[in-house]
């Protein structure tokens, strides 16, 4: 068994950039939002760097970039209005270009066989989760799924991870956080979880090793190995 799983009874998985490559659909919704305001498209490469702090931050970063302004200088009402438009566009097509990463299903199957509880903790709005989980037949693997707006705090705050531990009755010391961004690693450390980071996701253009996770992998398939 992979050393990250030694003594582990709960694995909390991040979604975007960890289980699914959702940036192409997020970019379509961002670009449609910008186009309504006659702003140039951001494109998927930029959007990849902006995912991870929830959809509101994604839209704020996209607007700031398109307007050549500092995020702090934007009007809050302007960001809220653009965010509403983004949510409408994304709701129309949340999984047309999104792909499941290799190794995800075999990893989740292996957790099920080993009786290791799995919980999904994403900063994505919870309203999008049913359609995405159904599209990739992921729903049945999770004891609980939390979005960025499910609780009053989201990652990098440890609250959603501690909620997952409490919900499954597993002590944080026996839990592992698996994610692609520094926010996942920070939340995991703050919650007293062990941390495993994937190298292929979105991390604001920084190497995830800089966040000093306990383990790093380039595929979740390693968690399925004997
Ligand atoms: O920022 C988002 O909307 C999603 O991010 P996460 O699934 O990587 O937490
Ligand atoms: Mg992520």
Classify the helix fraction into a percent range.
25-40%
**Tell me, what is the CATH class of the largest domain?**
Alpha Beta
Strands of the biggest beta sheet: in what spatial order? 5-4-1-6-7-8
Bound ligands, each once:
2-phosphoglycolic acid, magnesium ion
What does this structure look like?
- The longest helix is centred in the middle third of the chain and has 17 residues, at 76-92.
- The chain is globular and about 55 Å long.
- It starts with 9 loop residues before the first strand and ends in a 9-residue tail after the last strand.
- The strands form two sheets. It has a six-stranded parallel sheet, sandwiched between helices.
- 39% of the residues lie in helices and 13% in strands.
- Helix 6 (129-135) links the parallel strand 4 (117-121) and strand 5 (144-146).
- It has 226 residues and is α/β, with parallel strands linked by helices.
- It has eight helices and eight strands; from the N terminus they run E-E-H-H-H-H-E-H-E-H-E-H-E-H-E-E.
- Helix 1 (23-36) crosses helix 2 and helix 1 crosses helix 4.
- The protein has helices spanning 23-36, 44-50, 55-67, 76-92, 104-113, 129-135, 159-168, 182-191; strands at residues 10-13, 20-21, 99-100, 117-121, 144-146, 175-179, 194-198, 215-217.
- The chain has two domains: 3-21 and 99-224, HAD superfamily/HAD-like (Rossmann fold); 23-92, Putative phosphatase, domain 2 (DNA polymerase, domain 1).
- Bound molecules: 2-phosphoglycolic acid and magnesium ion (MG).
């Amino acid at each position: 068994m992979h050393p990250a799983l030694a003594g582990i009874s709960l694995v909390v998985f991040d979604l975007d950039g960890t289980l699914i490559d959702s940036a192409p659909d997020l970019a379509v919704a961002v670009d449609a939002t910008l186009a309504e305001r006659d702003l140039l498209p951001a494109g998927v490469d930029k959007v990849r760097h902006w995912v991870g702090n929830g959809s509101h931050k994604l839209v704020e970063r996209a607007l700031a970039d398109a307007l050549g302004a500092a995020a702090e200088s934007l009007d809050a009402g302007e960001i809220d209005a653009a965010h509403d438009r983004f949510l409408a566009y994304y709701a129309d097509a949340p999984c047309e270009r999104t792909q499941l990463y290799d190794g995800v299903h075999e990893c989740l199957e292996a957790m099920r066989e080993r009786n290791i509880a799995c919980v999904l903790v994403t900063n994505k709005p919870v309203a999008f989760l049913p359609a995405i989980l159904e599209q990739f037949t992921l729903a049945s693997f999770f004891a609980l799924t939390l979005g960025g707006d499910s609780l009053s705090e989201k990652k990098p705050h440890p609250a959603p991870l501690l909620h997952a531990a409490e919900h499954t009755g597993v002590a944080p010391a026996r839990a592992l956080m698996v994610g692609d961004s520094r926010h996942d690693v920070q939340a995991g450390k703050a919650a007293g979880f062990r941390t495993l980071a994937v190298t292929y996701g979105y991390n604001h253009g920084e190497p995830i090793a800089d966040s000093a996770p306990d383990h790093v992998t380039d595929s979740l398939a390693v968690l399925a190995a004997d």
